[in-house]
Amino acid sequence: MARKKISITEYNTLHQDVRDAKTDLVEAEARFVEVQKCEVVDNCKRCKGIGKIEDGTGDPTHNPTRDMRYVDCPQCEGKGYV
């Protein structure tokens, strides 16, 4: 079977991509090990695990654009779980 020919630049690019992918894999595996040590609990029912809830648009004089404000969930204190 004939081998495909590639330039040195293309080889170096591919080699760098493989090294980057290996680095990403090592980091992902380390993160997975850390996650395995955690205790998984149910999401807060009020904020659904986000930790923030909508607080309305507030006072129009202080919020002229009427953007929605978000505050820490009072039920879970912003943690996302109870």
Description:
- The chain is mostly helical and 82 residues long.
- It has two domains: 1-38; 41-82, no CATH class.
- Helix content is 35%, strand content 7%.
- Strands 1-2 form a two-stranded antiparallel ribbon.
- The model has no long low-confidence stretch (mean pLDDT 89).
Give a short synopsis of this structure.
The protein has 82 residues and is mainly α. The mean pLDDT is 89.
Instruction: Indicate the percent of residues in helices.
Output: 25-40%
Shape: elongated
The number of strands is 2
**How many domain modules?**
2
Weakly predicted, low-confidence segments: none
Biggest sheet overview? 2 strands, antiparallel
Structure annotation, total helices: 1
Strand order in the sheet with the most strands:
1-2
Rg over alpha carbons: 24 Å
Please write the string of helix (H) and strand (E) elements: HEE
Give me the secondary-structure topology.
Blueprint: H1 8-36, E1 52-54, E2 70-72
